[in-house]
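# step 3/5: fold
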Amino acid sequence: MVGQSTLDSHFLIPKKDQVAYHWLEWIIMGGLPFSFVENEFARKNSKHEPICTKTLMKYIAALKLKVRDSIKGEIPNQFGIIFDGWSDGLGGHYVGLFASYVNKSNVVTKPLLALRPLLDETSFTAREYELFFYDVIAKYEKTIDNVVCIIGDNCSTNTSLARKLRVPLVGCASHRLNLFVKGLYSQEGVAVVEHNPNADNVDDENGGNVEIIENMENIDDNNEEIDNGNVNNNNNNNDNIENINNNNNDNIDQDINSINLKVLTVKVHSCMVKFKTLKNSAKLKEITHLRALLNNATRWSSTFAMFARYG
């Protein structure tokens, strides 16, 4: 921190508190694990005196109370709550709770109120989330009556939670858009190519092929039968061509190429998975610096990014 040494000398901060401050700053601002303070090389190359993890945790607990008091003094009587869950992949599930309000400087502020597991880690029902909300809000000396809305995913659990809290749920707009797009490409077929009036080959209503005679050669003025289904003409060359085209056009449907986007997504994802293997990735490096991107169910823009990279 700028001017920290000046403050240290002016206010005569105890040496142990100075040491704790510098380690806390390093850990928090660097996003490092708490055990970093006991790392052999961290201690060797640091100019600060060593500190153990247990002592560090005591200072973190005290700092948490200070931060909470700071938020408590700023948060208004009416505010919204933004929340979401996150799993660490190791069996742990955490819920993040943010307050959302406009502070005294007319700036939208979203401080983190809590990031921890539910009270009962074996249950993820709306009731468990309800108890979690009450517990967190109470620590900031607020009640559910101070909450004007909750903002989260559009899922049944959150809908039930909103009913239990008697607070409106503002569904995540990005999630709604994601659900809408998924609904579109989950249909059996989605038209992606407009009608082409100049198409040469199309299917009729029953799925059969319509034969279009393109080359009319050696047709003279004599009467001659031209077999195209039930069409028999004894006219001159121009009349023959015109009649054939008219009969064909009566049976031609619109030329719409439909594909199943859901199936296409799976295929492109499978292709990307193959590109990420060691051998194929090495070969890909010879062509481009870009890397394969996968479709991720929890990353709503990942499908678009995957198709953009594939294209």
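# step 4/5: annotate
Residues 195-256 form one domain.
# step 5/5: archive (pending)
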